[in-house]
Amino acid sequence: MLEPGDGTVTKASLLARDSLDPSIPRHKYSYFPLAYPIFLCEDHETLTTNAGFRDNLLQALLSTD
What we know:
flat
């Protein structure tokens, strides 16, 4: 993996994109309704132990939007 990410999932994958280049549009069938991305400095295997991740996850789960 030579792209930005956590060593397991790339940043482009998190954003549901084939490329990080914003000038390249998403494929018409690759749309994922992402409200907001969360970027943390954490390994993939220990992501759920990160307090910032858990706080943002709780906010997303409790959101009424």
